[in-house]
Specification:
Elements lengths: L10 H8 L2 E2 L4 E2 L4 H7 L6 H18 L11 H5 L4 E5 L6 E5 L5 H15 L5 E3 L8 E3 L12 H16 L2
Antiparallel strand pairs: 1-2, 3-4, 5-6
Length: about 170
């Protein structure tokens, strides 16, 4: 839905996961082998990926100042299950949280959240205000007050609804 460029660093993984569901079209990329391969999950991992996706969406809505779209497992509860370790670079001594196993989506997401927290970018990843969208986007606005994934689509629709509601 969005014409915005991808989120930076590991946030791109989270943005990609959240945007596997197109609410308006009623399609879910996790239903397709291509959509699952893109995220490195198997058909057996779809239910867990969907639970994680909707918990992330609720957190991203909160970043934008909106209530959750529905009842979900709290994101912190899910991320607490992610095996991570502190990886230290032998050459420069830098450290980061890394997934304990290469594959699990939950661990990769947890590491991406940790990376974004350190970088100060976590709260810039938001979900569109539009109830028919809730697409994830990275808010690059100077004040960090973006509300829609796209001003040309969701923003324009919201402004037109407000204009029409005012009446003559």
């Amino acid at each position: 839905m969005s014409e915005r460029s991808a989120a930076p660093g590991g946030l791109a993984l989270i943005e990609t996961l959240v945007n596997t569901l197109d609410i308006e079209a009623g399609t879910d990329a996790l239903d397709t082998p291509e959509g699952r391969v893109r995220l490195g999950i198997t058909e057996d991992g779809v239910d867990g990926a969907r639970e994680l996706r909707e918990s992330l969406r609720a957190a991203l809505l909160a970043h934008a100042g909106h209530p959750p779209h529905r009842a979900v497992t709290p994101l912190g509860t899910l991320l607490a299950r992610a095996p991570l370790y502190v990886a230290v670079d032998d050459h420069d001594g830098s450290a980061r949280l890394a997934p304990a196993a290469r594959g699990p989506l939950l661990s990769r997401v947890a590491a991406a959240v940790a990376e974004a927290l350190v970088a100060g970018t976590w709260t810039r990843l938001k979900a569109c205000e539009s109830a028919t969208c809730h697409w994830a986007y990275y808010d690059r606005s100077p004040a960090g007050r973006g509300r829609w994934c796209s001003m040309r689509v969701c923003g324009a629709r919201a402004k037109m609804r407000r204009y029409r509601a005012k009446g003559p």
